[in-house]
Amino acid sequence: MKALIPGLAAVLAGLAACQEAPAAIRRAARAASPIPTPARVAPGLVPLDCDSPGALQPVRRGYCVRLRHYVTRPAREALETAAARVAAQFPGSRILFMEASWPRGERPMPPHLSHGDGREIDLALFWTDLEGRPLARLPNPSGYHAYEPPRREAERVCVGQRSLLNDAPDPPRTRRWKLDEARTTAMVRAFVADPRVRRVFIEPHLKARLGLAHESKVRFAGCSAARHDDHIHVDFY
Ligand SMILES: [Zn+2]
What we know:
single chain, alpha/beta, Muramoyl-pentapeptide Carboxypeptidase, domain 2, four-stranded mixed beta sheet, two-stranded antiparallel sheet, about 25% helix, disordered N terminus, binds zinc ion
């Protein structure tokens, strides 16, 4: 029985990224990996819905099983609002989340420099295949480390300055996916428009490429932080 669980989790990781898993599989996953009830939840924090078939879902259920899916109530409302806006523009789209905060409500939450108090979350970018069709699953099942490289080397920042933890090579040039610029831009703009959102971290080359140069909430996290051309980080007030 134990050997079945990792295999099932892998299947669901792929399914969660793109399509609704059959109800029987979803039920099996919930039974195999129940989300623990924390002994204590810091005041003001609430969990994101990890089993919703709606417009806001975890990249994979493991983030919830590890209790990294807590946010403040206004942050949850802002996330649900943004997800609904993107889905209204691009029917069937889902904002996929990775790490948010743990229930103890303390910053930082390793390995992050921040996170932990319910006001931060990492979200997957949107991707297509080379023909422009939405990908059936994320390039990397974790949601992290599938970087969208700068188009010109001159746009690359922090060369030789980031830690090994925060840096990694670009994916191979032969990769079969590319950034979904329209949906990613729509997602960032949905957050920028929300007064509950303080800032959105993205790499400078993507800020320029997505036409966000004049958006003051869209920021560069700096060279001591992780690359933000594989995901965005959203800070809430
Ligand atoms: Zn983050």
